[in-house]
What does this fold into?
Amino acid sequence: MHNYSRKDRAILFFNKILLVFIALIIIFPLLYVLLGSFLDPSVLLSKGISFNPSDWTLEGYRRVFQDDLIVRSFLNSILYAVGFTLITIVFTVLAAYPLSVEGFKGKNFFMIFFLVTMFFNGGLIPTYLLIKDLGLINSIWAIILPGSVAVWNIILVRTFFKGLPKELKEAAKMDGASELQIFLKIVLPLAKPVIFVIALYAFVGQWNSYFNAMIYLEDQDLYPLQLVLRSILIQNEVQPGMINDMQAAAELSKIAEKIKYASIVVSSLPLLIMYPFFQKYFEKGVMVGSLK
Amino acid sequence: MEEPINKKIKSMKKSKIKDRTEQSFLQYFKSNYTLYLFLAPAVIVVFIFNYIPMYGALIAFKDFSAMKGILGSDWVGLEHFKEFLTSPNFLNIFLNTIKLSFLELIIGFPIPIILALMLNQIRRAMVKKNIQLVLYAPNFISVVIVAGMIFILLSPTGPINTIFSMFTNSPVPFMTDPDMFRPIYIFSGIWQTAGWASIIYVAALANVDPQLHEAATLDGASLFQRMIHIDLPTLKPVIAVLLILSVGGIMAIGFEKAYLLQTDLNLPASEILPTYVYKRGLQLGDYSYSTAVGLFNSIINVVLLIFANNVVKKLSKGESLY
It folds into this structure.
């Protein structure tokens, strides 16, 4: 199509090389940790990728999977992410529908009510005190309720509802359908794509967060995965269940290192494998959101 | 006698009209109460978890004691603000916050735009898709894991220091050197989010009319010239809106990663307002004082948002958020 000059072709070539280089920089840490979880890191650094089978080990993984706390926190994370996602979907879709109905009385009031939260918030401490006063410390509700209703999501779904052809609703109204019936039988089935987008973002967001859990959960049995990872990776605390058979300090620190690598792989691999399948929807979310 | 009757009729008409509108709202409510029920859960959640804490922020002006409650605690006015602004920590923490967020904005903001312009030049769809798949991936890794990987990669015996050891004698103390905190924070942020942030620009570039490029090529414009004079102007509105949003959020810098990357030794550079609020408030229990610090942070935020909006509005003649 284009007739590129020699200079342009050189730029295009350089551009491609640079992008591949950037991609390599992005992959390098991930690959290093992945290899390091099977190989002794000291071997990896001194010899590179070793093909000597005696250098390979699944020790880190064995210890990660035998630890109750990691397994339990993994299940907790699933519970929190699923719960948060369900609440987000139900509350958001329900709220967005009336705001999309033409002639709905009080629309402006409710829109402003929600929009205000985009610009103002009480801050960390007052929110914490409220949760404490409500008796929600150490409760799953402190994790899955606050933040479940996001203005951004409401606007996104409302915009989608507004774009649906009016004839559909009018025809149903002529047949004597109530608002509830219209919503359930006509609007909801059509809204599946936008609901899916919101659900993905809610799930990933909740799965990857640790802050609310850190301040609202004190009982270790309730910890989500990210919080346990934090104690392993950042605070360098090895779970007693993982190392109860170790005595020598040198061996212990070596195993602790292995556990770090393995837990990173175990916890981030599910999302990294899943995301390419849903990439289309994630991108859609960015796009629709940008249009407002 | 005629006139008063007229007036009466008029006033009757008026009240009737008024009645009708009032009635019709009630009627509307009655016949559409399901719609209001739909809104109820979201309204309740937002009221409880967003609005009540706004009222709770009053304790910034009080000496909060749990026994007396928010209303019952004694007023102290701007005491806590004064205490913070005159404390020896203030300048350091405030400047840390400003420096970290401005550097992140100045360095981090243009990169997704450049990435998108570069990606746009890749003609083969498969190659482009695969590169994008890699560029987007870090966005799905949690901040805890990113911080964990940073500690592993940058440890004195880690891979980066092993590479550096070819050039230097002693390992670089990345995680304990305050001067290293900001570069690490910003570079890892770019590593994690730049690819994902480029999506929106890539999409905007897909809308460029190919005929523009063809015409420009015929006129002898080079590839680089076309990027600057056709592609970049297409992105201008998107850039304007995103720039306002990021300047507005400049002081809302993420607590999560800064807190994870803090070590006792890099605190002189890594202590920022949000981490300070968390430590003073939740770890030491100075509820009122830390609420005041948090409020100070949000006030600056709102001011910056308004400022950014006005600047961008002037620069781009009309492009603004509100």
Observations:
- The longest helix of chain B spans residues 2-31.
- Residues 158 and 206 of chain B are 42 Å apart (CA to CA).
- Strands of chain B lie at 62-63, 74-75.
- The two ends of chain B are 56 Å apart (CA to CA).
